[in-house]
Amino acid sequence: MGLLGAALRSAVWELSLGRRAGPGMSGLKALVRRFYALQEERVEAYRLFDEGHRAYLQSSPDYDFVRYRQLVHEITQAFNGISKEVIELKSRLHEEWDRPDLSEHMERIQEREREKLELTARLQLAKQRALHHPENESYQEETQELKQRVNKTIEAINEILQDFKYDSEEMEETGERERE
């Protein structure tokens, strides 16, 4: 599926950063860059999840549930691996780099990502119900409501990411001024 397993991702990360990067901007910047890379992995995982769900719905009425269940399993593993790594980054930012502001942004993003995943799963079920019962307007309404909630959650994530970006760029500017 193009997503690295959690163990492989962690091993690559440890090799590229070193387990305990010493003080200095480069180690902190590396943590910030890794966080952005993990967010990109989440976006890709959601894209694959949506793509797989569309394919599953198109296999109606003889759904290929075995293949879809395997996709859900792989996506769940990917999200778990990403989440574990973000938790580690969050801890390192707070404890090693004394950046509770960035750590707090990550925590808020994690909360919204959990919400988004739950809403996405509910939306997929609602879409299937709406497909099977096109005459039932309540299923169509539920689908629309869940789409709106997913979009609002994405907006909230993007706002927090903007705050994270602002605070992490402020850190870079401060570090550059201190070196002058």
Detailed description of the structure:
The chain is mostly helical and 180 residues long. It has one domain. Helix content is 85%, strand content 0%. It has 5 helices and no strands. Helix 3 runs antiparallel to helix 4. The longest helix has 43 residues. The N and C termini lie far apart (46 Å). The N terminus and C terminus are likely disordered.
Overall average residue pLDDT: 86
Low-confidence stretches: 1-25, 176-180
Q: State the helix count.
A: 5
- How many domains is the backbone divided into? 1
Main sheet attributes: strand count, strand direction, barrel closure: none
The total of beta strands comes to 0
Radius of gyration over alpha carbons? Answer: 20 Å
Shape: elongated
H/E series: HHHHH
Helix content: over 70%
Distance between termini? 46 Å
Q: Structural class, please?
A: mainly alpha
Strand content: under 5%
Write a concise keyword list for the protein shown above:
180 residues, mainly alpha, 5 helices, elongated, disordered N terminus
